[in-house]
Specification:
mainly alpha, two-stranded antiparallel ribbon, 168 residues
Length: 168
């Protein structure tokens, strides 16, 4: 019996050692599992934080895209307005050039008419009854109107002759 008791004791001791090893392994596994759970929980928190940052970044991106779209639209409007202004500027330049040319033509025509009047003027003053300066100026004004092709009545009263002299 002793041998058998010793075998049983050895087996029991062996089993007890195996249980202790299993218990240690279980403790190690539990500690490892707890560490992994803690790590997993931290990773989930990190993931949630990254997702929140991604959502915030996406919102900012959408806002930036909308602003960029608005600026592009405003830029197109400004380009269109600039184009319209350039066309208007060219039209105004052409109109200004035309008006300037017309003014120069009228000035030239006026100088020529003045020259013609100055050539005719001394003749009128030599005529009997046209000796006064006022008569001369009225006649010059009438000649200017005739030369310009737009004779119209002035506010001066009509003249008539009285014994060879013009009387107003």
């Amino acid at each position: 019996m002793c041998a058998r008791f010793q075998t049983l004791t050895e087996k029991l001791s062996k089993k007890d050692k195996e249980y202790q090893e299993l218990d240690e392994r279980l403790g190690t596994e539990l500690a490892s599992k707890k560490s992994l759970q803690t790590s997993l929980h931290q990773k989930e928190l990190d993931c949630q934080q990254i997702q929140a940052q991604a959502a915030s970044t996406e919102t900012s991106l959408h806002r930036a895209q909308a602003e960029l779209s608005e600026r592009a639209e405003a830029g197109l409007k400004l380009k269109q307005e600039l184009s319209e202004l350039e066309v208007k500027h060219q039209q105004l330049k052409a109109e200004f050039k035309q008006l300037q040319q017309q003014r120069e033509e009228k000035e030239q025509q006026g100088l020529q008419q003045q020259s013609e009047i100055n050539q005719v003027g001394p003749v009128w003053t030599e005529l009997p009854g046209f000796g006064t300066n006022a008569d001369y100026h009225w006649i010059v004004a009438c000649l200017c109107d005739v030369l310009q092709g737009c004779l119209y009545l002035r506010s001066a009263p009509l003249c008539h002759c009285d014994n060879g002299h013009v009387v107003s």
